[in-house]
Amino acid sequence: MFIDYYKILGIDKTAAPKDIKAAYRKLARKYHPDLNPDNKDAKKNFQQINEANEVLSDPEKRKKYDQYGNDWQHADEFEKQKQYQEQSAHSRGSGFSGGDFSDFFESMFGGAGGGGRGRQVKYRGEDFNAELHLELIDASKNQKQTLTVNGGKIRITIPAGIENGQTIKIPGHGGPGINGGPNGDLYIKFSIANHPKIKRLGDNLYTSADLDLYTAVLGGEITIDTLSGKVKLKVAPETQNGSKIKLKGKGFPVYKKEGQFGDFYVTYNVKIPTNLTDKQKALFTELSKS
Fold first, then answer.
1. What is the pTM of this model?
2. Are 158 and 140 in contact (CB under 8 A)?
3. Can you tell me the distance from the alpha carbon of 237 to that of 211, in angstroms, rounded to the nearest whole number?
4. Under a CB-based contact definition with an 8 Å cutoff, are residues 112 and 103 in contact?
5. Cα distance between residue 194 and residue 122, in whole Å
6. Tens digits of per-residue pLDDT, 230-250?
7. Where are the domains of the chain?
8. pLDDT tens digits, residue range 195-208?
9. Quick one: how many helices (H) and strands (E) in the chain?
10. 199-289 topology per CATH
């Protein structure tokens, strides 16, 4: 059965790459199985959306699909055999009819019209591409996820420290091979959301902390948020605005390096008090004269 990838993404055949990307992102969010646990059709729709995007977002694959439809994966073999037959016919001084070529194509790919004339050629299955969304805190520890691919469930372990935009390959979990050929692979690209208070750069983490003037001058203790919870920090007396401290080994885990972590940097923002009383102003005036 022919699958219209353009119809699946809700776009025209003349759609630009940016339109394909926008349509895919919108539909992938809408039909992601994790967001539709009670929708039995969501998994199938999500799979078709990924398949359509994988083909239409690649200029070469899109060109082959536009020309050959569902048989686009065999376009190279088709062209080679067509060229071979044309050269062979030319050397014999005879033509090669469309009907003859159609019969050859069907026999080559197992069609009913082959009549067993051509040998069954094994072809590797199509590679699948998917995007998996994680929060920063989830990417900071090993994650086990169950994915639905091709109607079946596979369980994967995502190592702590995965990078935003990083792609991992799951061998053999792509499309089924043809005529007994090997399955394709599954490629998962990770999209890691920004944290509201903590920024990640490589394996290091960065945050800022507000200090009132009195704590900055006299020293004291504050509480900051980290990915593992709240942590108390001692503030040294006479801490300057914009000064930075490093918490060694308290950053992000290093990908696939057990027990290794980046650093955690905290930048202090000293806040000048406002709405001072007359008495407080007088005290600051006295301090300024000392």
1. 0.56
2. no
3. 12
4. no
5. 45
6. 999 999 999 999 999 999 999
7. 5-114, 128-192, 199-289
8. 999 999 999 999 99
9. 9, 11
10. HSP40/DNAj peptide-binding domain (2.60.260)
